[in-house]
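Supplementary Methods, section 5.1.

A reviewer requested that the exact input to the structure prediction be made available. We therefore reproduce it here, unchanged from the version used in the analyses.
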Amino acid sequence: MKKFFAAILIAAFVMAGGAVEAKSLWVDNGNSWYADKKARNVGDILTIVINETTTQTATKSRSNSKSGSVSVGTGTGIFDFIKAFSASGSDNFKADGSAVDTNRYSGQITVTVVEVLPNDNMVIEGTQSIWQNRDEHKITLRGIIRRDDVSMNNTVLSSRVADATLKFDGKGPLNAKQRQGILTQIFNFLF
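The structure derived from this sequence is encoded token-by-token as follows.
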């Protein structure tokens, strides 16, 4: 009798419930402390740690010299008015120069993933604008990163950004005073 009721009960559950689904007891909706929060999709954000140093050294040396001489004897016949003379000249040129230029950039900029490429590399882009005393300091970064280079705290070193375009720009009264005037620019262009 117990077997009969158990069979009827199982049949009732199967008919009423339809298909049986297996679900996990662990639901990860992204709010878990254990979830992977690294950027991987379009619209995700991550931080680029900028630590760039560039050094350029140029040394140039130029020299050139030439000399020449001419001598003419006295004229005869109808050219007897020509007196004997000689001339000589020389020209020397020498120039030396050297320049050393070192630039260092450091900071952080948060960017957005704008495209995921077929090979799972991500195109990132972002702009950071800082205003201080009516002067704007703007950092713009665009490049390609690998998912493997994104650290656990969702940062990437700027040295790991491929095809990177890193632009530092500014505008405002102070930045305007640091630029050459229009007449100076014209003279520099002409000469």
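Residues 45-58+104-190 form one domain. These observations are discussed further in the main text.
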